[in-house]
Write a structure and sequence with these properties.
The chain is α/β, with parallel strands linked by helices. The chain folds into 3 domains: about 350 residues, TIM Barrel (Alpha-Beta Barrel); about 220 residues, Rossmann fold; about 60 residues, Immunoglobulin-like. It contains 16 helices and 34 strands. The strands form 9 sheets. The chain has a 9-stranded mixed β-sheet with strand order 16-15-17-18-27-26-25-21-22, sandwiched between helices. A 7-stranded parallel β-sheet has the order 9-8-5-4-3-13-11. Helix 1 packs parallel to helix 3 and helix 4 packs parallel to helix 6. The mean pLDDT is about 95.
């Protein structure tokens, strides 16, 4: 299965972007009113010295367009100086037009008069004029790398709902098309995207009008904004990476357009950990650009909006208000050095042997379904992704809506209530043709049509279900003790895996079955079948009768939990184990392939303590940059090491 790592190109060469979202500490969003060129020069030089060569910059809309028919030429001249300063340093920037929303506040031009952002013809025409005119002023400037229409426009369009259920997707698409056409009409030949945050239904399960599939047909790259708050450290570390995987839509480059932490929420040490984890995991998940939020702190602006009422927004900077580099700036610097050393622009992701099946109910608006049917898909699949990464599997996200790939050895269908009937037929066909297909039971998180929408369940898995209509079979214990009755992959007969039990009264339920022509691989503590395999053709269908991924997703501070052991065993049975792996889920292994034949292997610690692990690399050796051969890896807390893998 192909995994996306598409790059943007300039002059025929692939690009990797590393930089920041930029407001000067001398003004924040109002920096253009009292433009301080000396401060801008100092800030840009500091960024350049730390490996950052790109900024994302903002036309603060109320200042740049004071009337419906005019641009403020003073602001335009100041922005031109800003571009010139980038060019002198060999840097570039991405101008952002409609701002709009920024740092916890919406900022209207005073002449808007409450007009609808997307549907008012006159107002959309004024936006298009503004975009075209600004593009025409700067399209030929060498410091312009790309264009963004907006900043987090779903919040600007409807801040109360963030656009969910209130913005019309047809209007949104038409509006985006008109503004992109305005960029092209103004002479903008550089890549363009929307700046919406990639929060569409395809990622979140909630429709905010900015459907990623429809936007992807118009833009040159997708730009997620990720600021997730989690109850589990590993889910936090891998959260942005999973979003990147979900954005493998249309084969477009994925640019981490916004991410970061405020120092008001986190210690400097853990801010550095956050940056290190996010940068390396998203790289391995296909991202090819990173723009941190943001360049500096704003202590001098505490008495002006938005910082007066959102004071935590003052301290997202990589540099403090005195210009000192924070630890997270050093992480970006070190990451930039590694990207250059490994020539990441000329690398790709190895094809996946394992497919994580994401139900189309995440994104499709099927009739007579519930909102939870969509949002729970994200939660469950993200937890399955965590477990697959802990098992070091080469896993790809396979969207049911796009059709399943046919070249994987293992298909994971985790805690899935709903797939379409043709997909179940496809899964059975894949097993017949030699694949291992794993499915775990899940009857949904609400009472409407509670039960698995799995046609021909008995015949598919070689069992006779014993479930009752409308009444769940509850899991009474607080732990699921899965005892293996036979060897399975790397799990020996007699071994026991212990899973946390969680969930509401609808979902905390198992599937009682009697085996017919399936073999029982594992039982629960009461002797009930927990894992069964039915061999079919040259492959197998594997049924887990408990929703282990859903339960883990509902449990705080659970990872690593033993689903990774089960996935590793499934991969062993399916001949889908990766070429390099470790037997400790606290270290995650990934790989990129350089076009010159080199292979680079990452080891990323999920532990807050120093950790040492032995490495299984088969007929390969792992080599440090010095040339020394490595047989084990020692990592500092949340540390990263990259080695070259060579054939013996």
């Amino acid at each position: 299965m192909h995994r996306n790592a598409a790059k943007l190109h300039a002059n025929g060469e692939p690009l990797t972007w590393i930089g920041v979202n930029y407001w000067s500490r001398a003004g924040g969003p109002r920096m253009w009113r009292d433009y301080d060129a000396a401060v801008v020069a100092e800030e840009l030089e500091s960024l350049r010295a730390h490996g950052m060569t790109l900024t994302r910059s903002f036309f603060y809309w109320p200042d740049f367009m004071p009337t419906p028919e005019t641009l403020d030429e003073t602001m335009v001249d100041r922005y031109r100086d800003f571009l010139d300063q980038h060019a002198r340093l060999g840097m570039a920037t991405i101008p952002t037009f409609l701002v709009g929303h920024m740092s916890g506040q919406n900022w209207d031009p005073e002449w808007r008069g409450g007009r609808d952002l997307f549907g008012d013809v006159w107002f959309v025409a004024r936006q298009a004029w503004y975009v075209r005119e600004l593009t025409a002023r700067f399209a030929d400037h060498p410091a312009v790398a790309a264009w963004l229409l907006t900043n987090e426009v779903p919040i600007y369009g409807d801040w109360r709902s963030r656009g969910i259920g209130t913005l019309d997707p047809e209007q949104v698409r038409s509006w985006a098309q008109l503004l992109i056409d305005a960029v092209r009409a103004g002479g903008g030949r550089q890549p363009v995207s929307v700046g919406d945050g990639a929060w569409g239904v395809e990622v979140t399960g909630s429709d905010n009008g900015f459907r990623v599939r429809e936007i992807a047909e118009l833009v040159d790259f997708l730009g997620p904004h990720v600021y997730r708050m989690e109850t589990d450290q590993v889910r936090q570390n891998l959260g942005a990476a999973f979003v990147c995987e979900l954005l493998d839509i249309g084969g477009l480059p994925v640019i981490m357009e916004e991410f970061g932490v405020t120092s008001d929420y986190v210690s400097e040490e853990h801010a550095a950990h956050y940056y290190r984890q996010l940068l390396h995991h998203t790289l391995l998940a296909g991202a090819t650009g990173w723009l941190a939020w943001n360049n500096t702190d704003y202590d001098a602006l505490e008495d002006v909006e938005p910082y007066s009422h959102h004071p935590f927004e003052m301290h997202f900077g990589l540099f403090d208000a005195a210009g000192r580099a924070k630890p997270q700036a050093l992480e970006v610097r070190d990451f930039a050095r590694e990207v250059e050393r490994l020539d990441i622009a000329h690398t790709s992701r190895p094809d996946a042997d394992v497919a994580l099946v994401v139900s189309s109910f995440l994104e499709r608006q099927y009739p007579f379904t519930q909102p939870e049917d969509a949002t729970v898909v994200f939660d469950v699949c993200r937890q399955a992704y965590v477990a697959a990464r802990e098992a070091d599997l080469r896993v790809g996200v396979a969207r049911e809506a796009d059709g399943l790939p046919e070249d994987c050895r293992l298909y994971l269908v985790p805690s899935t209530k709903q797939l379409t009937a043709p997909t179940w037929t496809a899964l059975r066909g894949l097993a017949e043709a030699g694949a291992t297909v794993y499915c775990s039971y899940f009857q949904g998180a609400h009472k409407t049509q509670r039960g698995p929408w799995w046609p021909n369940l008995d015949e598919t898995f070689g069992v006779r279900k014993q479930s009752r209509y409308g009444v769940p079979a509850p899991i009474a214990d607080d732990e699921l003790r899965m005892v293996f009755r036979r060897d399975f992959g790397g799990i020996a007969a007699g071994e026991e895996l212990v899973f946390a039990v969680a969930g509401n009264e609808h979902a905390r339920a198992y599937l009682p079955v009697v085996p017919v022509d399936a073999e029982v691989i594992a039982e629960d503590a009461l002797g009930r079948p927990a894992l069964l395999r039915r061999r079919t053709g040259t492959g197998a269908m594997v049924l887990c009768t408990f929703p282990i991924e859903y339960m883990a997703a509902q449990t705080p501070f659970v990872n690593p939990e033993p689903t990774w052991r089960l996935y590793d065993a499934l991969a062993a049975e399916a001949a889908a184990r990766p070429p390099v792996r470790v037997e400790d889920p606290r270290v995650i292994v990934g790989e990129l392939a350089h076009e010159d034949g080199r292979r680079f292997t990452w080891f990323i610690s999920q532990s807050d303590e120093e950790i040492k692990v032995d490495v299984h690399s088969g007929p390969s050796i792992l080599v440090e940059p010095s040339g020394a051969v490595v047989r084990g890896v020692r990592l500092r807390p949340y540390g990263v090491q990259v080695l070259e893998r060579r054939a013996v």
